[in-house]
Amino acid sequence: MFGLVDAISFYARAEKVFDPTIRHKPVVVLTNNDGCICAVCPIARQLGVPKFVPYFKIKAFLEKNNVVVRSSNYELYADLSERMMNVIARYSDSHYVYSIDESFLHFKNFSCVDSWYEYGHVIRKAVWRETRLPVGVGFGATLTLAKAANHASKKLSGFDGVAVIDDKASRKEILSRMSLTEVWGIGSKLGKRLSILGLKNGWDLANQSPKAMRGQFGVVVERTVNELNGMPCLNWDEIGQDKQEIFSTRSFGQRVTDGHALKAALSSHASIVGAKVRRQGSLIKRLVIFGSSSPHDDSYYKKSVIYEFPIATDNTLKLVGAISYVFDSIYRQGISFYRCGVGGVELENSQFQQQDMFSLSVNNPPLMKCYDQINHRYGRGAVWRLMRCNKPKKNARINTRRAPDWRSLASLPDPFRSILRGEQPPLEKSGL
């Protein structure tokens, strides 16, 4: 059996968790530049507030209906997401974090579960108790059926947050109420092509011949049809997708008051974020940097800054340089910092980056490959302490400074200097 746990209106609900005074008010969340609505809570949805519309077009309507408008708060969302996933992980053999608010579950040794419906409510109550986030839970014999059940748990009438597809009757009941494009893996273009054949809903698609679907539409639709009929065809690796935000945050074991220590911690987080974005082949357009005291302190302090790169980058040197540039606006003398972190948002695919004809590229793939190899061999954080970054110019959009030449770092051990000059074979053959 598979399951899918998905938060309901995650961004908007996260804002309500952060600010309980707006818990019973309509709330919308805007995109990074406050240009478009990206999340709408159920209360606002009842007022007719649509998603993905420009903010200026609906601003008057929101003000008239006293709708609370908030800008995206990525560090908050990442923190709540981590808490939610930690709770969910306790209730299955294995789980896969599909997105910031979705997690697939796989139950291999759960034959003792008498009722999946009741078990789903156990998960919902646990997540609500520990995070105050409402979630929908769906169960099915395949990942696609679990996705369909989750859709029913949140959006179809007659379900109270949990739906189970475990027989033909439940499959027919739910799939017949789902449009083609609501089936996982069926986009708008593909849905139009399928509708030409007379198919109207997910149940119609499930009753098609898998081989015929493969001949007309390819192997993806064939797998979808098999999955809708309870035959598993997908695994974790095939459903994986690149993350849209990558964060590294942590609470300090002991409070930090020293500026150098805080800057070192933020630089370490930047190094981790850089390694993660390179691993998935992405580039960072905006970097979120924050530090805060404990919310239980008498005077709570929190400061978050967004640094925008003129050209999206995965260069750790540039990420650490951005921290140096904004650090003075985050650090405040006398504050006991309890938590800090760095996050990459507005990620771009490195394969499809649009270069700027007026700015030099800030990326250095060979250097970053060497950087990752050394960290892999000697442990995370082995290199970042040796870095010396130039401070970015005040106008970040026209910053064209190159990364410093690592071969000039006399403090590097001789084997490292030789590797960077290309005089030594790869690390695995160098004897290091």
Write up what this structure looks like.
- This protein has 432 residues and is of the alpha+beta class.
- Helices cover 40% and strands 20% of the residues.
- The protein has 3 domains: 2-6 and 76-238, Alpha-Beta Plaits, CATH 3.30.70.270; 11-75, MutS, DNA mismatch repair protein, domain I; 246-430, DNA polymerase, Y-family, little finger domain (Dna Ligase, domain 1, 2-Layer Sandwich).
- The chain has helices spanning 10-18, 42-46, 55-64, 74-89, 116-131, 143-155, 168-175, 188-196, 202-206, 210-217, 219-228, 236-239, 259-279, 316-330, 365-378, 414-420, 427-430, and strands at residues 2-7, 27-30, 37-40, 68-71, 94-99, 102-106, 135-140, 162-165, 246-256, 282-292, 302-313, 337-349.
- A hairpin with a 2-residue loop joins β5 and β6 (102-106).
- It is globular and about 65 Å long.
Please name the CATH architecture of the largest domain: 2-Layer Sandwich
CATH superfamily of the largest domain: DNA polymerase, Y-family, little finger domain
Low-pLDDT residue intervals, each spanning 5 or more residues: 388-432
In spatial order, strands of the major sheet run 5-6-1-7-8
Number of helices: 17
What share of the residues does DSSP label as strand, in percent? Answer: 15-25%
Domain module tally: 3
Please estimate the helix content. Answer: 40-55%
**The top level CATH class name of the largest domain:** Alpha Beta
Query: Biggest β-sheet: count, sense, barrel?
Result: 5 strands, mixed
Record field, number of beta strands: 12
Helix/strand/pairing category: alpha+beta
- State the end-to-end CA separation: 47 Å
Whole-number mean pLDDT: 81
Which shape, going by the Cα principal axes? globular
